[in-house]
Amino acid sequence: MPDSRPARLVVLVSGAGTNLQALLDTIAVQHVVGYGAEVVAVGADREDIAGLRRAREAGIPTYVCRLGDHADRAAWDVALTRATEEYEPDLVVSAGFMKIVGAEFLARFQGRFINTHPALLPSFPGAQAVREALAHGVRITGCTVHFVDDGVDTGPIIAQGAVEVRDEDDETALHERIKDVERRLLVEVVGRLARDGYRIEGRKVRIP
């Protein structure tokens, strides 16, 4: 990337799919050529979730790889990798995908697999980032868009957005404001990567 065609995006979801919807809405407004990318498939780790319904309503192919349908996590990882490969993605976007992928998936998509995290990494990695930020008493937190590696929220950082912590905030209120920034940042970052290309130099992501 970039080249003469739009980048192919596969989006992975586990729940409501609001980040997916933000991507779809932006592409609908800017059109595929203007945005520089199109969502060619949506994958999930479970059936009957809003994220899949959003994709199907938009006419986008979907697939489901449930962990319980496979002998172990490694077998599930191979199945997820193969199902994703079928759509020949340029970028894979984790949009609230709540499973940790394994070695097979990373070997195939590392450097092209994007995730969001509700904190300013490297602070507060892991599943309780918003709660831990509040407990720590930080005055500024936010969200991070990063490439996924084999650690927990340790991959190269692409972009970050700041969110002020208010005195009256509880975990839910703070997380909702972070999600608002996260959606905008993810859409912006994916579009820039698709249109302009990028390179990863150590821990730094360079976008022309």
Order of helices and strands: EHEHEHEHEHEEHEE
Task: Please give the order of strands in the largest beta sheet.
Answer: 3-2-1-4-5-6-7
Structural class: alpha/beta
Report the biggest beta sheet as strand number plus sense, adding barrel if it closes. 7 strands, mixed
Q: Gyration radius, to the nearest Å?
A: 17 Å
Helix fraction, binned, reads: 25-40%
Low-pLDDT parts are none
CATH-scheme architecture: 3-Layer(aba) Sandwich
CATH class wording: Alpha Beta
User: Which fold name is given in CATH as the topology?
Assistant: Rossmann fold
Principal-axes geometry comes out as globular
Function: Catalyzes the transfer of a formyl group from 10-formyltetrahydrofolate to 5-phospho-ribosyl-glycinamide (GAR), producing 5-phospho-ribosyl-N-formylglycinamide (FGAR) and tetrahydrofolate.
GO molecular function: phosphoribosylglycinamide formyltransferase activity
Protein name: Phosphoribosylglycinamide formyltransferase
Pathway: Purine metabolism; IMP biosynthesis via de novo pathway; N(2)-formyl-N(1)-(5-phospho-D-ribosyl)glycinamide from N(1)-(5-phospho-D-ribosyl)glycinamide (10-formyl THF route): step 1/1
Summarize the structure.
The chain has 208 residues and is an alpha/beta fold.
